[in-house]
Amino acid sequence: MPKMKPGDAILVSACLLGVPCRYDGKSKSNAAVKALSKTYRLIPVCPEVDGGLSTPRSPAEIKVASRGEKVYNKCRDDVTQTFVLGARKALARAKAHDVKLAVLKARSPSCGSGAVYDGSFSGTLREGDGITAALLKKNGITVITEEELSRL
Asked: Where are the domains of the chain?
């Protein structure tokens, strides 16, 4: 966990801040995440919207294939490149604000950290990271979910 000082920037999933940008057109507003704004600068991101997906949209999950991970929506459209584009934009925003920590939505195909849905649309979780979470980690940014705020 990076040492955080008051005023430091934290990248945050916009849905956790009350922005209705999730696949179902809703948010997952989280009071504990919002309360971080009393001490830190919160930088909201929604990689899926930033990558070009609409709100609402068909839900998506990451499927492990022989050639790596692919993201498919429930209509079976391959939306991997849209997720990758959104992840790159989130990384650029993080770098622009010297972000060392991201608080992202658990289990999301973009933002999940440690566990994501397995691509079967059956509610089954598997170990792994969302596309954005993985890219941020690869670039030295610590990623936690809203369920791990006690680690701060």
From this structure: 23-151
